[in-house]
Amino acid sequence: MFARYSRVGGLFLLWVPIATAQGQDPCVWRAPQGRRVRCTEAAARGVRERRSAGERYHILEDEIGGYIRFQAALAIIGLAISVCACGGAGPTAPVVPATAGDLKSSLSTSFDALTIPANAACSISISQHGQVLLERGRGQIAPGHPASVDSLYRIASLTKPITASAVLINEQAGRLSRTDKIGRFLAYTEPAPTIDELIKHIPGLSNYTNTPAYLSGNTSPTTLESLLSLIQPWDGIRRYQYSNSHYALLGAVLQQVNGLRYEEIVQRDIFGPAGMSQASFAIPPQSESVGFPFPSNTDPSWAYAAGAVTSSAADLNRFNQALLNNLFGFGAVESFDRGAGVTSFGMGSGLVNGDLRFTHSGLLDTYSSFSVIFPADRSSVVVLCNFNSNGLQNFVMGIRSIMLTS
Q1: Which residue, among 31, 100, 199, has the nearest Cα to 404 in the 3D structure?
Q2: Considering only the top CATH level, what class is 100-405?
Q3: Contact predicate 169/330, CB 8 Å
Q4: What are the angstrom distances between the C-alpha of 44 and each of 24, 49, 50, 51, 70?
Q5: Which pLDDT score, from 0 to 100, does residue 406 have?
Q6: Which pLDDT band, with edges at 50, 70 and 90, does 102 fall under?
Q7: What is the model's pLDDT at position 99?
Q8: Residue ranges per structural domain of the chain
Q9: What is the mean pLDDT of the chain?
């Protein structure tokens, strides 16, 4: 159920469909070295109850070039299925506002309760019904530089929905089809996965970010050719396993069909139309944003289409609203097939008490991020931090509880 873990090369948490654990204890997870970790019986009972109700949960999480403890990762998985935290403590439950007029104040109070280390920072942007409810920063994003909603963060794998959306836009333009095998565009021998299979992490290709070349050289620039050479051929077996390699290949396909650099394509198709004026592919200057407790030095050429974007919480909320409003023209997010867990626009899907949500999160060196959209009321929550936080999923779902009960 877990991808490979390494202290330096990064942790890869996969989207987890509960249905795949039929016949097993639903709240026992196998840790590295075969260690088994059990949640409380009450939590396990909750999983069984939710499974019997036919609910399905999916989460996307990865880390490029950083390190986070397994216990923290396990907490994220437990929180992703809205049942238990198998390790790591999240913020306390938010206070539910008594009236709608208290909503902004309650959201702000909840953000104040999010644990942030001294000399670190987080920024948040929340919208509902297409209108901004709260935009704030907390802490210090760089020495002497208080965080705001416009502060810059490395968003890591929140880049993936951007890449997937660019693929869908190019499909609308007739440059490719999601059913195309990538061998049509790249020198890739059979068996070759389709574009849509890559988006949905179906091939389960090994992660290039686990290779010695990445681990020893990711602070220096690389070329696309060198990066692609690290990706092992597919054996044709559909594993449904999260991998950054899938999105490196998608970036290469986009370049091939456009005759442009990936960054130029995303600027044209995503950043420009969505009004994301602060988004880029550059490491933020340390005078404006620095990772805690150490700087983030992974070169963007290594993160590429899997995790290279730098952005602000406000800009990512604009991207989410563009998805919710079908600004890009490829259809309503709720219309996409959710059977594989990952949608064709690159976000994991979940349904809790009838509340449909699409999520993605990311970790890159010391930066962590979480983004979720709710089509029912066109809501979006984006939280970006410059430190490795294991409580963002829990925190954001607490924010959603406030929004639903106000």
Answers
A1: 100
A2: alpha beta
A3: yes
A4: 11, 9, 10, 11, 20
A5: 75
A6: confident
A7: 54
A8: 100-405
A9: 81
